[in-house]
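Dear colleagues,

As part of the handover before I leave the project, I'm documenting each prediction I ran so the next person doesn't have to rerun anything. This entry is a single chain, and its sequence is reproduced below.
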Amino acid sequence: MSYIPVIGLEIHAELLTDSKVFCGCANEFGGDANTRVCPRCSGLPGTLPILNKQAVVLAARAGLAIDGRVNNYSSFDRKNYFYPDLPKAYQITQFENPICTGGYIEIDGKKLRIHHLHIEEDAGKLVHDDYEGISMADYNRCGVPLIEIVTEPDFRSVEEVQKFVEQMALRLKYAGVCDAKMEQGSMRVDVNISIMPAGSTVFGTRAEIKNLNSIKAIGRAIEYEIKRQSEILDSGGTVVQETRRFNDNHGDTKALRSKEEAHDYRYFPEPDIPPVFMSDEEIDTIRKSMPEMPNKRFLRYTQEYGLTAEEANLIVSDRAFSDLYDECCFEGKCYKKTASLMLVGLNRLLNDTQESVSDIKFGASELSKLASLWDENKINSNSAMEILERMFRSGGDPAEIAEKNGMIMTDNTDELSGIVDKVLSENADAVEGYKNGNAKLFGFLMGRVIAEVGKSANPAAIKKILSEKI
């Protein structure tokens, strides 16, 4: 039988606060086990949580980044369960009144809806020692501030899920909310998946796949789970609602426990944290501080600046890179030339040196001037890339570099005409071959003339004179 997958996501993202959400311990990745803990985050009796205001602001920024509604009123609850990595035996989270509701991300023309976004604290981490047969608890991550973004079950394919998660990570990075380093666990995805017969509108029984930490793993887990559930139904069996874990080495999922419902957690209002009130003015202040999101930049780049979809996607894939492009376009209007300089030249230099945009020795003004020199045909494309490399290595003004190194293109017709005559006389066989129909030889002759002229070669002027003389 043919089945349609029905998928919803729960995305956990660590907030880029300086300290944890309910105490003053540093919010950092790595380090020796249990070196960033205190009585509050290690759950010692008698300790009281103090809400980190920065976490609330970042959560609101995340909500705005996904076109959600930031609520004026939100509150915290206790979610009760016991695992060894949760020392209090309950998690402080938001259940009844989350900080944000609604929102969506559009993928390939389809709006994939978000139900809500809430704040909670992370649990610690268990380290299993198979040799000794013991498990150890590292509480460094306990109390790290998280947002959990819960979607509607709108996804119907692996590709939709993967593109959504990529776009979510990009928006959170643009908003300065989360670094979205999935390999470090700062963004993790739980996938809720069921299948239903093609043509049906009744959802099947779902399984939840926990803690997927790469785009590839998300795709492999979904594909395996669709296959597993399809085989169960085809054989007349029943899919059981449960939580499962994906084994990246084997490419399969294994049952962890039966899936809990909300009542199993015995939620009740958190008595030690007062509700959070945010005025419309406070929310509007946060909204005004938000950068333009990558989806809106993409539309501007393609619809107003004339870039291809591929060019626009490459530029918006990194906020610092996109910010530099926007600054250059504000300085000048050479949209295409600036994009070429950045995507062809600057990207290669950054990759070769493993540096970032913040490390470069020139600013948007110099890059914009270089694009203008190229756009106004004062330098050729080869010179533009060479000047960019010189600026990358040592800084400097592009016009001065061009002048000093003889890169300003010559339009001296008499001088060019003489060089063309010399090349034609030295390559009579190529001239004859071109006249006899070998069109490729024109490019050879162009190359010979350009080589003779050097860095000041003006390809358009040379092509015109060469065409006339041949």
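The domain at 413-469 is CATH 1.10.10 (Arc Repressor Mutant, subunit A). The chain has a mean pLDDT of 92.

All the best with the project,
I.
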